[in-house]
């Protein structure tokens, strides 16, 4: 049986980042991913915020044009509020090559990557992986659950699990550059996006048209909500949606918005990224948190492997980090309560006041990011 220092389950950005950092410290890392290719079944719009772009070396050629303009709309789309930042705030990643580059960096660092290989359970430090050739067993001193919002590793390690989830879906297609500057359009309408927002990101290269909300609150289901939104979405004047089965990419998946989980480590391993609930409860942004929490995870695991002290993992404490999310959790609670278009209209009235606009600017263009790490 192969023996490794660390088994990382899941090759999203969290798993790739954690695996790479550990391998660069000289550890023997096995990364198992159930998808046969990292460029398919993408589950993110790929909006990177300024702080991520400042702090992490993402490949510039895989990033869309900078976005400074956000337009917020009430139900019915009348009387939107436009906010323009004096700085570049967002860039949309071309995610397939970004995952591909991250995997190449992991392999260069010495990570052994097994694609098409599902983690299926554990007995002590022995883990079952199921690939094309059937089940195999590997031994690892630690396991990292980077296996997304519905983490099997979290369950098997008896750690906390995400219970507060949105479900999101979007369409992505190439477009020709139009007159409008790159813009992020957000629609607050609980009939289209119950508990969250519907969005169009038009950066002049791609259009992302999506919605997210609580699965049980979509009046006619998520798919129908996306169809309705796409048929009248703002920000697409002069944009032609291409025909053809391969011209439009469909993405989607669950988004944990209950805040960072409290128990995200034990003597045998830890959780990162969505598995740990490391997503902003308000904006549902998880790319910055997953990169930052992965740095902390790799540092803690390195210390534990170096010193031979398993207790080092107790420093990976979700409860301590979570307390810094209080404000965002309170705002998520507020957004949850906006359940009718009339209430959304009323809430939108506040956004039109100077304090409301200032608060929106702080949320959308602020410098805050995932706490406690970089
Ligand atoms: C529709 C949508 C749009 C989003 N847009 C944005 C955005 O624009 N900006 C932003 O900051 N955040 C966004 N998010 C959130 C963000 O994408 C996630 O927080 C982030 O990608 C999480 O990364 P991760 O590596 O933790 O999880 P994932 O990227 O989900 O990776 C988990 C991996 O684990 C694998 N896996 C699962 N189970 C197993 C198993 N048993 N064995 C082996 N492999 C397994 C999965 O195949 C997957 O590859 C969005 C989310 C959704 C759903």
Automatic annotation (TrEMBL):
MF (Gene Ontology): FAD binding
Signal peptide (UniProt feature, chain positions): none
Record-given protein name: Dehydrogenase (Flavoprotein)
Bias (Basic and acidic residues) ranges: 238-252
The organism of origin for this protein: Actinopolymorpha singaporensis
Domain of life, source organism: Bacteria
Domain FAD-binding as annotated: residue spans: 129-165
Taxonomic lineage of the native organism: Bacteria, Bacillati, Actinomycetota, Actinomycetes, Propionibacteriales
Pfam families: FAD_binding_3, NAD_binding_8
Chain intervals for the UniProt region annotation (Disordered): 233-252
């Amino acid at each position: 049986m192969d023996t490794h220092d660390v088994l990382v389950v899941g090759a999203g950005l969290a798993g790739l980042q954690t695996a790479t950092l550990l391998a660069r410290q000289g550890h023997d890392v096995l990364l198992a991913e159930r998808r046969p290719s990292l460029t398919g079944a993408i589950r993110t719009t790929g909006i990177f915020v300024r702080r991520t772009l400042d702090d992490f070396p993402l490949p510039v050629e895989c990033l869309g044009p900078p976005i400074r303009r956000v337009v917020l709309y009430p139900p019915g789309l009348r009387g939107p509020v436009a906010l323009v930042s004096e700085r570049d705030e967002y860039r949309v990643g071309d995610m397939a090559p970004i995952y591909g580059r991250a995997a190449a960096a992991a392999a260069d660092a010495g990570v052994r990557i097994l694609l098409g290989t599902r983690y299926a359970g554990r007995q002590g430090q022995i883990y079952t992986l199921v690939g094309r050739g059937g089940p195999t067993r590997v031994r690892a001193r630690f396991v990292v659950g980077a296996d997304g919002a519905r983490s099997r590793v979290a369950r098997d390690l008896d750690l906390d699990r995400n219970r507060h989830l949105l479900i999101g879906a979007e369409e992505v297609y190439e477009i020709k550059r139009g007159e409008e500057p790159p813009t992020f359009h957000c629609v607050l309408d609980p009939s289209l996006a119950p508990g969250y927002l519907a969005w169009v990101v038009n950066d002049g290269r791609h259009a992302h048209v999506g919605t997210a909300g609580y699965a049980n609150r979509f009046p006619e289901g998520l798919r129908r909500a996306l169809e309705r939104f796409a048929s009248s979405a703002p920000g697409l004047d002069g944009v032609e949606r291409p025909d053809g089965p391969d011209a439009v990419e469909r993405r989607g998946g669950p988004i944990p918005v209950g805040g960072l989980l409290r128990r995200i480590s034990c003597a045998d391993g830890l959780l990162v990224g969505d598995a740990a609930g490391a997503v902003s409860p308000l904006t549902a942004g998880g790319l910055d948190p997953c990169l930052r929490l992965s740095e902390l995870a790799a540092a803690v695991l390195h210390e534990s492997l170096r010193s031979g002290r398993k207790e080092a993992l107790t420093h990976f404490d979700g409860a301590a980090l979570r307390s810094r999310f209080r404000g965002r959790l309170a705002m998520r609670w507020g957004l949850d309560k906006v359940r009718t278009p009339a209430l959304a209209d009323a809430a939108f009235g506040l956004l039109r006041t100077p304090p409301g606009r200032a608060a929106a600017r702080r949320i959308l263009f602020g410098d805050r990011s995932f706490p406690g790490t970089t």
